[in-house]
UniProtKB/TrEMBL annotation:
The gene is frr. PANTHER family: MITOCHONDRIAL RIBOSOME RECYCLING FACTOR PSEUDO 1, RIBOSOME RECYCLING FACTOR. It comes from the Bacteria. The keyword Amino-acid biosynthesis does not apply. This is Ribosome-recycling factor. Responsible for the release of ribosomes from messenger RNA at the termination of protein biosynthesis. May increase the efficiency of translation by recycling ribosomes from one round of translation to another. It comes from Limnobacter profundi. Keywords: Coiled coil, Cytoplasm, Protein biosynthesis. InterPro entries: Ribosome_recyc_fac (IPR002661), Ribosome_recyc_fac_dom (IPR023584), RRF_sf (IPR036191). CDD domains: RRF. It is found in: Cytoplasm. Residues 129-167 form a coiled coil. Belongs to the RRF family.
């Protein structure tokens, strides 16, 4: 493996870490309706658990209401039960074949809890990024030990990996800052 390959692989993994953080933060409720909130809700569909998006159409009625329309009439009760029993704190209401899911306004205390939660998620992502830096540096040391690169090349590559790490850690901070602002906006 060459220095360029190590850098490229490390950068790709760091990008994936950021994408994973963004995906996780989309699931955090901000008081505004967002169909992605229901992504991890599983519905019992004839004995097997499937994501809600595979048994129903999800749309927004307004800024605070998600509309769920099951494709099969007999699935309405199962979908409603799955949403109610999820850890999201939502209370769906059936209206015939359509299920309306109003998003309750967040209290100040709940906003602070969510802010702590997203900071924890961000910290985990930073740790993952730093672990990737460590792995890259170990790979560089192996190249030096195998006499494939010089120690000067190793130091330059380590400095490059550190710049990459700093860039992605600051990107995590930016993502967290924007999500925190979104949560704290009343």
């Amino acid at each position: 493996m060459s220095v360029a390959n190590i850098r490229k692989t490390t950068e790709e993994k760091m990008v994936k870490s950021i994408e994973s953080l963004k995906t996780d933060l989309q699931k955090v409720r901000t008081g505004r309706a967002h169909t992605g909130i229901l992504d991890h809700v599983q519905v019992d569909y004839y004995g097997s658990m499937v994501p809600i998006s595979q048994v129903a159409n999800l749309s927004l009625a307004d800024a605070r209401t998600i509309v769920v329309q099951p494709w099969e009439k007999n699935m309405a009760n199962a979908v409603e039960k799955a949403i109610r029993e999820s850890d999201l704190g939502l209370n769906p209401a059936s209206m015939g074949e359509t299920i309306r899911v109003p998003m309750p306004a967040l209290t100040e205390e709940r906003r602070r809890e969510l802010t702590k939660f997203i900071k924890g998620e961000g910290e985990q992502t930073k740790v993952a990024i730093r672990n990737l830096r460590r792995d890259a540096n170990e790979a560089l040391k192996r190249l030096v030990n195998d006499k494939e690169i010089s120690e000067d090349d190793e130091r330059r590559a380590q400095a490059d990996i550190q710049k990459l790490t700093d860039k992605f850690v600051s990107e995590v901070d930016q993502v967290l800052q924007s999500k925190e602002a979104e949560i704290m906006t009343v």
